[in-house]
TrEMBL record:
GO terms for molecular function: GTPase activator activity; phosphatidylinositol-3,4,5-trisphosphate binding; zinc ion binding. This is ArfGAP with RhoGAP domain, ankyrin repeat and PH domain 1. It is found in: Cytoplasm. Residues 631-812 form the Rho-GAP domain. Residues 844-933 form the Ras-associating domain. InterPro entries: Arf-Rho-GAP_ANK-PH_domain, ARFGAP/RecO, ArfGAP_dom, ArfGAP_dom_sf, PH-like_dom_sf, PH_domain, RA_dom, Rho_GTPase_activation_prot. Residues 210-335 form the Arf-GAP domain. It comes from Strix occidentalis caurina. The keyword Metal-binding applies. PANTHER family: ARF-GAP WITH RHO-GAP DOMAIN, ANK REPEAT AND PH DOMAIN-CONTAINING PROTEIN 1, RHO GTPASE ACTIVATING PROTEIN AT 15B, ISOFORM C.
Length: 1112
């Protein structure tokens, strides 16, 4: 509604009686009345904001007048009827606008647009006089002069979602759109730089996702700031459930997160779950203000033009003091309030919960119900999802109190320390992308910079009073120091701000750069994370993360990266040990650069990419810090016990597959394979999994030797190596051992741990010398020169190794308990070997946790997965353990569940489980349950003709993190699926498919994560891996359940040559692999899985002493 278009005669300035009418195309929408030269034009000759129209009057034949506060416009229609139609529409739209503004209690002054981010005069090619230009929100407005700008009546505006800005020469720059190029020229180079920056920011804003905003704004009252009434507010307080404008949001932030948690509708995409959006539909500005603004004296209310001081005063009174709120009748009676809260959360009455909570009811009050001890649990039990959402966001909210307001001088609940620092810095224009390439010295300009009162400002020079630009400390999310010489200026650092921009600063002197870094960090890092400031950090900032016991909800924490340690500070929690990145068990990225997963032995941390720019910087820095830094031992990725991961991986593999291999460590492997394996392990040992069949024992053995031979500074170190060799001359055995022990004590920790691990390994290898022919002497001949990096002509080096193996127990102080472990381990290995040679046992079995029916602790089964085990065998094994009999038409199957994608895939009965386990991410697990749709799928397949299916489905591609502007959401597409490929057509009539995928490379999961808001609940998540191992992910949605079933059945049919269900299951049952209960819990491959899975597996192992084998 409210859209009008048509040809009218217009006289722009009816100053005299003799009007001259020109034919114009006139367009009316809810915001503007505009006229154009022709219907085809994109840019108007003039726009009049609807909000500035005070009256529309009919003035005789076919004519009407649009009256604004300052200027009148006369239009002539083709006929009286047409004229009347225009008047009616205009009046209606103007009235709607006025009532909206009344609702929000704040008249927009003269219809002026949003406060401009930048405004001023610019030359525009094609215009004689300079124009007044304003960059505001996601548009650039052109006005004839400053007076028109004040009145809000302009020439045209440019929607910047299609804009592109390019610098042309010293003062000139082009704003290019598909319809026209605007060639501007500024007064100075400096001015130009600022205009370009402002317009680029404007483009970024226009491109940022407005999907959430559109949905929130669907409710009328949410279209105006809850506090000042500005239109199109795109920020929100997610605990108060109010939608607010950018300027109010700035002041909200000052109140602290205990009062209001500020998020952007457009930039903080991750926050906006379906529940939260619903909550804003149910509470939102209308319900919230009925409570918070029940008694606002007109003299205290604020409006869009209010100053920031006025806003601050009002917001403190409104939310921190609760001065205007509607008091709940139970106010003051804590017990009654709490009781009422417990009752309210079980109903859908959110307004009541709001009133109770902000009048003093305790969000964590005792309910007296042991089953549901908190109001949150009560809400959950009653199925009140929105109540839960509301309570969760207000978990830490403070109750408003009048005395909280305090004096005007202390408006911030958590005042950031005020840091003052100033000096000259080199600076480049701000960027919306990572600094990709080296910036030459000429790309920096020297600026006078000051850091004062929480604002970093930069000036043309130290005599200027007006800054060229500023960055508020509270907007800074990350500060990163670059390595020296990264750019043309020797020392540089980057400042990242909340709205996805980054500033690059530089300095000649490293000390001065450090000084700036510390000062800036101090100005934005929350006082709770003060300890991070003392570190020699390369990167510091705030990020959203999940970890520890709270995996439901991401929280904000402060992070600092110093060397290879990642320090974490969480408000309100104890100090945490830093994560040693080189010792991580896993470091991976999930989704499309969305979550960084760090797995340590004791904890798992998920860092979320709330904003993309600083997150990408963190990911790169963490990956780099977690890799090996050089060729000495201590620079490698390490295990928990300080042994290089590379060494650990090789030893583990040889122990598992090569102890009895003849000539192990003496035979040389293939040179090329050794070289490439060593390179792979050196680059990132963490991600390398050595697998039997894929890697040869001798290649791995050779890799380990090569590593030690090439090691920087050697295992025995350059300093102490000669002393070890010298010790071999000692004749008295006891004296010699004593000297070895002394020397061992002088080695750095990592060298000592590595030497012990290696000698322990060789000790075990020689125990099998009967089979592998490698006794202590033979091993010493190989390892002596390798470890001492000598040519081997002299046996002294070999002697050291021989002594170390022979006197292993004494030299390394191995006690009885450890020795017992060793013996048990050897026994276990022998048993494994015997079992393997008798054909009943495969080496390299894998223990994993499988759930029965659903993921919960009681449903856990720890099961050993031999390489040959199929999904069907696994299913039977689990059912057997629980004594469940499979009845006919009980389609028990094994499913792979991906929690992050909220999707699952039934494994085909003949699929091998082990490779799937290896490929499972930390958020996936296996569960055995009935496949409910199998019967229907079998019936469908039996009844149809041919083996293909075609029809419409809704299609969505996974959004690329950096792919701004890519299409999102689900779109109708036509699909054809046959036994070889799946084809996508733009529409039914299309001849050529837009895309085509081979069926065998697709992995089809049932379900789509809710976050994507699929249009129906019958969807698939599809993964596609190309021959080059590139991964793609997309989503399909069907209209009905039957449709989904048919597509899925067709997929399964195509992928498995028609067999969906085994015809005769008894065969499998009879020949099923027999479990050896004694060895059932041994794993020689490090386990993967999420924290709880690991914990559970480890707990299971602890009951069996043989499992200690892993901890060598
Ligand atoms: Zn506002």
């Amino acid at each position: 509604p409210g859209l009008g278009g048509g040809i009218l005669g217009v006289t722009p300035f009816p100053s005299s009686m003799s009007y001259i009418y020109q034919k114009r195309w006139v367009k009316l929408d809810s915001d503007y009345l505009r006229y154009f030269d022709s219907e085809k034009d994109t840019y108007s000759k003039r726009f009049i904001p609807v909000s500035s129209i005070s009256r529309i009057a009919s003035i005789g034949d076919q004519k009407f007048e649009v009256i604004t506060n300052n200027r009148n416009f006369v239009f002539r229609a083709e006929s009286d009827a047409d004229r009347n139609e225009w008047i009616r529409t205009l009046q209606q739209i103007a009235e709607e606008r006025r009532s909206k503004e009344r609702l929000s209690m704040s008249p927009t002054a003269n219809g002026a647009a949003d406060p401009a981010d930048k405004s001023g005069f610019l030359e525009l090619r094609g215009f004689k006089h300079k124009l007044f230009v304003a960059v505001a929100g996601d548009k650039v407005f052109l006005y004839k002069n400053a007076e028109d700008y004040r009145l809000g009546i302009g020439i045209t505006y440019i929607e910047m979602n299609v804009g592109n800005v390019k610098e042309v020469d010293r003062r000139g720059f082009d704003l290019t759109t598909p319809y026209r190029i605007f060639s501007f020229s500024a007064d100075s180079e400096q001015e130009k730089e600022e205009w370009v920056e402002a317009m680029q920011q404007c483009i970024a804003e226009a491109l940022s996702n407005s999907e959430v905003a559109e949905r929130i704004w669907a409710v009328e009252s949410n279209r105006f700031c809850a506090d000042c009434g500005s239109p199109k507010p795109d920020w929100a307080s997610i605990n108060l459930c109010v939608v607010i404008c950018k300027r109010c949001a700035g002041e909200h932030r000052g109140l602290g997160p205990g009062i209001t948690k500020v998020r952007s509708l457009k930039m903080d995409r991750k926050v906006w779950t379906e529940e939260l959006i619903q909550l804003f539909h149910h509470i939102g500005n209308a319900v919230a203000n009925r409570f918070w603004a029940a008694n606002v004296p007109p003299s205290e209310a604020i409006a869009p033009p209010s100053s920031s001081q006025e806003r601050r005063r009002f917001l403190i009174a409104k939310y921190r003091e609760g001065k205007y709120r509607r008091y709940h009748p139970l106010f003051g009676n804590q017990e009654e309030l709490d009781r009422a809260l417990c009752a309210a959360v079980t109903t859908s009455d959110l307004a009541e919960t709001q009133a109770l909570l902000f009048c003093g009811a305790a969000v964590t009050c005792a309910t007296g119900d042991p089953q549901c001890p908190t109001p949150l649990a009560l809400a959950e039990k009653s199925g009140q999802r929105l109540q839960m959402e509301f309570l969760l966001h207000n978990k830490t909210s403070e109750t408003p109190r009048l005395e909280l307001g305090g004096s005007e001088d202390k408006p911030y609940s958590v005042p950031l320390p005020s840091v003052t620092h100033n000096g000259f810095l080199y600076k480049t224009p701000s960027m919306a992308k990572p600094v990709g390439e080296r910036k030459g010295q000429e790309e920096f300009s020297r600026r006078w910079c000051t850091l004062q009162d929480g604002v970093l400002s930069y000036y043309e020079n130290d005599r200027n009073a007006v800054p060229n630009g500023e960055v508020k400390a509270e907007e800074i999310v990350c500060l990163a120091s670059n390595p020296p010489h990264a750019h043309g200026i020797e020392n540089t650092f980057e400042v990242y701000i909340e709205s996805e921009r980054l500033y690059l600063f530089g300095l000649e002197s490293p000390d001065a750069a450090r000084e700036w870094l510390k000062s800036i960090a101090k100005s934005f890092v929350h006082p709770c994370a003060e300890e991070l400031l003392a570190l020699d950090f390369q990167r510091i900032g705030r990020l959203h993360y999940k970890g520890g016991l709270n995996l439901e909800r991401a929280e904000e924490g402060w992070f600092a990266l110093a060397g290879s340690a990642l320090h974490v500070c969480v408000p309100g929690s104890e100090r945490q040990e830093p994560l040693q990145l080189r010792k991580l068990q896993e470091l991976s990225i999930q989704g499309d650069n969305e979550v960084l997963v760090l797995v340590e032995r004791r904890r798992t941390l998920y860092i979320q990419g709330e904003r993309k720019l600083d997150f990408l910087g963190w990911v790169q820095a963490i990956q780099k810090a977690a890799g090996s830094a050089g060729d000495t031992l201590s620079e490698q990725q390490l295990t928990e016990s300080d042994v290089p991961l590379l060494v650990d991986r090789c030893i583990d593999y040889i122990t598992q597959c090569g102890l009895t291999s003849e000539g192990i460590y003496r035979k040389s492997g293939q040179n090329s394979k050794t070289t490439s394996l060593l390179e792979m392990l050196r680059r990132d040992a963490r991600s390398v999994r050595l697998k039997e069949g894929e890697h040869q024992v001798d290649d791995v053995a050779n890799t380990l030797k090569r590593f030690f031979r090439d090691l920087g500074d050697g295992l025995f170190t350059g300093r102490w190596g000669p002393d070890w060799l010298w010790a071999t001359a000692l004749e008295d055995e006891e004296e010699k051992i004593g000297e070895y022990r002394r020397l061992l004590g002088t080695l750095p920790t990592v060298n000592r741990a590595t030497l012990k691990a290696l000698i322990n390994h060789l000790f075990r290898v020689q125990l099998f010398s009967g089979e592998n022919q490698m006794n202590t002497h033979n091993l010493a001949i190989v390892f002596g020169p390798t470890l001492f990096q000598t040519d081997g002509k002299d046996y002294k080096a070999g002697r050291v190794v021989e002594d170390l193996i022979s006197h292993y127990v004494k030299i390394f102080n191995v006690n009885d308990q450890e020795m017992k472990k060793q013996q048990d381990e050897i026994m276990a290995i022998m048993k494994m070997r015997e079992a393997a040679s008798s054909g009943t046992q495969q080496a390299g079995d894998f223990i994993c946790t499988v759930y029965l029916e659903e993921k919960k602790t009681e449903a856990e089964q720890h099961i050993k997965i031999p390489a040959t085990m199929t999904a069907e065998e696994l299913t039977f094994e689990i059912l057997d353990r629980r004594k469940i009999v499979m009845k006919e038409k009980d389609y028990w199957s094994c499913f792979e569940v991906n929690e992050r994608e909220e999707a699952e895939r039934p494994l085909h009965y003949s699929e091998k489980v082990l490779p799937i386990l290896h490929s499972l991410g930390t958020e996936s697990y296996l569960v055995v349950k009935k496949q409910m749709s199998m019967e229907n799928m079998l019936v469908y397949l039996a009844s149809r003709v041919g083996d293909c299916k075609h029809g419409m489905m809704k299609f969505r591609e996974e959004r690329n993190l950096l792919g701004l502007g890519l299409s999102t959401g689900f779109h109708d597409r036509y699909f054809i699926l046959n036994h070889t490929c799946l084809r996508l057509y733009k529409e039914v009539r299309s001849h050529k498919p837009e895309k085509e995928w081979p069926v065998r490379n697709l992995k089809v999961y049932l379900g789509i994560k809710r976050k994507l808001r699929p249009p129906t609940c019958w969807g698939f998540t599809v993964f596609y891996e190309t021959e080059k191992h590139e991964k793609q992910q997309w989503y399909l949605c069907c209209d009905t359940q039957a449709d989904l079933r048919e597509w899925f059945a067709t997929f399964l049919h195509a992928q498995n040559g028609g067999a969906l269900w085994p015809s005769e299951t008894s065969k499998v049952r009879a020949s099923r692999w027999q479990q050896d209960s004694r060895l059932g819990n041994i794993s020689l491959i490090p386990l993967r899985g999420n924290e709880s899975e690991m914990r559970n597996s480890v707990a299971a192992f602890a009951t069996d002493p043989l499992t200690l084998l892993r901890n060598v």
